[in-house]
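INFO batch 0412 | record 1 of 1 | parsing
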Amino acid sequence: MSRVTRPTIKVLVSLILMPLLSGCAYLQYFGLFPSTGTVEDSPTGKTIVAGVMVNEQGIPLSGIVMLEQGKLFRGKFRRGGVVDSAGRFAVEVPDGDQWGLHGYADGYIYHPESITLAPGKINRYRWVLSVDKDPQDNPTIRRITLTPEPAPGVTVTITLDAFDPKLRLSEQVLALNARTGDAFVMEPPEQPRWGHPLEGKLYPNGIYRAMYGPLPPDSDVTDWVFVVANEDCSISWITRAPLDHVGSVGMPQVTQRGGRG
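INFO prediction complete | emitting tokens
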């Protein structure tokens, strides 16, 4: 009898689930299988998640990556980083084992997968994103405030006005301090409700809040990057405070203030 390999099992399970799930719900269950990358020595001995983010044609994308500690879609976002114009990213994490890696670029469906890291190594991945073919109903970031003005030693209170026209926000109302690499989920204005069967919780539109500090030396407002995602894996513009869009290679770069929508 021939041996059934892990990739074969992954394909079979995904084919079974495909008729039952749609959008991000499908990716949630399909993503429970840890993705494999390559491992190389880390000169510093630290655990690094690195790689390149591209579209389906292999063109590099700028944007951000966020890392969720433990199992995928548990909301324990801890680390993140900016993806440069060549599509490259490198994020230090405190330990190995299982993490959820999420890649975001303007104009693309975000890509979440479970990864298993080798501790003390550079764990390298190629992250491929698909174009968002139906962007008109994507979530938006309407307003961001940071009080007081970010500066070294200050603890800031952050508010973000998140809106999804279909009322399908996920827990991913996310803030990233690009200077420290710290990432976190912001607190919702009220408790979420359950969506359809086999789907995650749906979070309300409104003002999300967080506190962070004290800020490290040389901190300023441009350290902060934000993104909002819904349960269909569609995202807002990736937004750098105060509401300047980061943009992606090959996509129209929006630079006006005030957010999309």
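INFO post-check: The two ends are 57 Å apart (CA to CA).
INFO record closed
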